[in-house]
Specification:
This protein has 6 helices and 9 strands; from the N terminus they run H-E-E-H-H-E-H-E-E-E-H-E-E-E-H. By secondary structure, it is an alpha/beta fold. It has one domain: Rossmann fold (3-Layer(aba) Sandwich), CATH 3.40.50.2020. It has a 6-stranded mixed sheet with strand order 5-4-3-6-7-8, sandwiched between helices. Helix 3 packs across helix 4. The longest helix is centred in the N-terminal third of the chain and has 15 residues. The termini are far apart.
């Protein structure tokens, strides 16, 4: 099956992975739309199909390894690595900073593909890219499932999202949902304080 934007969006709806309400994003911004990719990626066939779009794009780019930020990017990164038959590692937070742990390492000169589930501002991806560069390796590209910025976030390397959407987000100070008194929810994986 070759998926297009309509197929992907329909599958997000069918798996309850597209939520509506008042959400605190990992970036700290607020939005009335939230992509809970874990709900769609819990189905191995959907994960395989979505990640094949990324894998097909980067399979001939001489990738040495795939890295993802924990926890949202782990399934995406692992599935892409499996499909292109490359090593997979992930970065996780320690003292609020992404770092390599568990004995993971990146060798000098390796070409590394960064994978993620959802990009709003790209903060976690940029952090992972910094880890790769600090190891004197090369970021060969970035692949992710949902681009909430509709293409505005530019990682400065070849990048691909399976779907681009204009999902409006607000700074907490300018959020109309806050002004209307809607309860703020943080459904993602990172524990961020919700300030009232």
């Amino acid at each position: 099956m070759s998926w297009n934007d309509v197929d992907i969006l329909r599958t997000f709806h069918e798996t309850d992975a597209l939520l509506h309400g008042h959400f605190l994003l990992t970036s700290g911004r607020h939005s009335e739309v939230y992509f809970q990719c874990a709900k769609i990626l819990q189905h191995p066939d959907y994960a395989e199909e979505l990640c094949s779009i990324i894998a097909d794009e980067f399979c001939d780019k001489n990738i040495d390894a795939v890295i993802a930020p924990a926890i949202g990017g782990i399934i995406v990164g692992h599935e892409v690595a499996k499909q292109i038959n490359k090593r997979f590692i992930f970065a996780e937070r320690e003292d609020k900073k992404l770092t390599l742990r568990r004995g993971f390492s990146i060798k000098e000169g390796e070409r590394i593909l960064v994978c993620e589930d959802v990009v709003t501002t790209g903060g976690s991806v940029f952090e992972v890219m910094d880890i790769v560069k600090a190891c004197d390796a090369e970021v060969a590209g970035v692949g992710f499932i949902v681009d909430r910025s509709n293409g505005r976030v530019d990682f400065g390397v070849p990048q691909l999202s399976t779907i681009k959407l204009e999902a409006v987000s607000y700074s907490p100070e300018e959020c109309p949902l806050c002004k209307n008194g809607l309860e703020l929810v943080k459904p993602g994986s990172r524990k961020l304080p919700i300030k009232s």
